[in-house]
Design goal:
mainly beta, Methylamine Dehydrogenase, Chain H, 2 domains, 4-stranded antiparallel β-sheet
Length: 451
């Protein structure tokens, strides 16, 4: 079973008993409907670049037939910047490195047709950094993460010493290191992006394997030492999908495709030491998703691939206490089957893609407003004292102050959407604050000051 088909069977998110609220379709704006020439079926979401534009990938179509990388303005003007050859399958979200280039993976293609890692400039110049050969991994379906040491870390869903997937790191110049090969007992088929905590360790999920073959939550050091934090057993969930997201208190949120009180999947919270709490057990198999995003209002947001009022997918909100509401149901005219993750733009709105629907039934890019205010993003979200950091936002011209959890930093305003700074001496983990002529902006997540 491929990662994509596995994710498409995933869990259920439509209604909790008594939790549904009236749909607010006017919140959603279709920014672009894909057509064959600019690629289609964007099962990855989009990310916001330092220039304020959004970047993403379509898995098929484009000028060569293998999908493309595109950029899009906040208003929806979309331009393909690179087209892949047939059979490449550009997998998940891009990540913008500290050098300004974008890094990503193709699930297939490369020299051995087992997938590849690439970097691409904002202008479309692509360099293949590594081609997998199954011994060092196969089918990298998830996004890379740039660590505080500047290297990129990621996973492959298959391959490695046991064929059960791997964890790897790769430098921006392409030096590749295999860190861990899963054995089944410690997990199988890693799912979702890694996330790095303030101590420099990474946390992730495997969809299968573990003590009960229901998947695991694991921690792995930058050097490759892996510790299984939790093996799912069914009642606490099974088949974790998507990726973990870190809350302000240092705990992580995630989802499972199956299991829980009703057998339809869960949302869970887990501490860095492995104590797991089930926040919500789903009651219907009408929807499918795997990725959550923590909004600036403290609520979790996500999408269902199916379900909703029209059975074409939905956008939902979950409070920290576990109360779920459906905020929008897709009706094909505005998209269908939203499989990629939502991302919150610095204007406060959420942005995402749908696999199908829209004018040509080839998928869409949309924005979705919950009335949340603007904020600033920090890239990367962790680093040592003295590390270079980019602060992204809007209307940053004229900024007068940048602080890391209260400690003042020197900075340079690069443009209206970007500030360049370094982590100041004495800084501790916490919010980044920017004072502008238009008001004070806080970061959407804590910046973790790592050893």
């Amino acid at each position: 079973m491929t990662k994509l088909s596995s994710c498409m069977k995933v869990f259920a998110l439509l209604f909790l008993a008594g939790a549904a609220v009236p749909l607010l379709a006017q919140k959603l704006t279709t920014l672009h409907s894909f057509e064959n020439s600019d690629s289609y079926f964007p099962y990855a979401g989009v990310i916001q670049g330092t220039n304020g534009d959004f970047f993403g990938a379509g898995s098929d179509g484009g000028s060569v037939g293998g999908g493309s990388i595109f950029k899009m303005t906040v208003k929806g003007a979309l331009t393909p910047i690179y087209s892949f050859p047939a059979g490449s399958n550009p997998a998940r979200d891009l990540v913008q490195g500290a050098d300004g280039d974008f890094y990503g993976a193709t699930a297939d293609g490369g020299e051995n047709s087992d997938g590849s890692i690439y970097k691409i400039t904002a202008g479309g110049g692509l360099t293949t950094l590594h081609s997998f050969d199954s011994t060092d991994g196969k089918n990298p379906y998830d996004a890379l993460v740039q660590a505080s040491n500047g290297d990129f870390y990621g996973t492959t869903s298959e391959g490695g010493a046991s064929g059960d997937g791997t964890v790897f790191k790769i430098t921006k110049s392409g030096t590749f290191t295999s860190l861990h090969s899963f054995t089944g007992k410690d997990g199988k088929d890693p799912s979702g992006d890694l996330v790095q905590d303030a101590n420099g360790d990474f946390y992730g999920l495997t969809e299968f394997g573990g003590a009960h073959n229901g998947g695991t939550v694991y921690k792995i050091t930058p050097g490759g030492k892996l510790n299984t934090l939790h093996s799912f057993a069914g009642k606490d969930g099974a088949l974790p999908v998507g990726y973990l997201i870190e809350a302000a208190n240092g705990d992580f949120y995630g989802t499972t495709a199956d299991g829980g009180a009703n057998g339809d999947g869960t949302i869970f919270e887990i501490t860095p030491s492995g104590t797991l709490t089930t926040l919500l057990s789903f009651t219907s198999a009408a929807g499918q998703t795997g990725d959550l995003v923590l909004g600036t209002d403290g609520n979790l947001y996500g999408e269902t691939e199916g379900g909703g009022a029209n059975d074409h997918g939905s956008i939902f909100k979950v409070t920290p206490a576990g109360t779920l509401t459906t905020e929008h149901s897709f009706d094909t005219t505005d998209g269908a089957e939203p499989l990629g993750a939502l991302v919150q733009g610095t204007d406060g709105d959420f942005y995402g893609t749908t696999m199908q629907g829209g004018t040509n039934n080839l998928g869409t890019v949309f924005s979705f407003s919950m009335g949340l205010g603007p904020f600033v993003k920090i890239e990367p979200t962790s680093g040592i004292v003295g590390a270079d950091v980019k602060i992204l936002g809007s209307e940053l011209t004229g900024a007068t102050s940048v602080t890391f959890n209260g400690d003042a930093a020197t900075f340079t305003v690069v443009s209206s959407s970007e500030i360049s700074t370094t982590v100041p001496a004495g800084a501790t983990t916490g919010k980044v604050q920017v004072v502008t002529p238009g008001g004070t902006l806080l970061s959407n997540v804590n910046f973790s000051v790592t050893p």
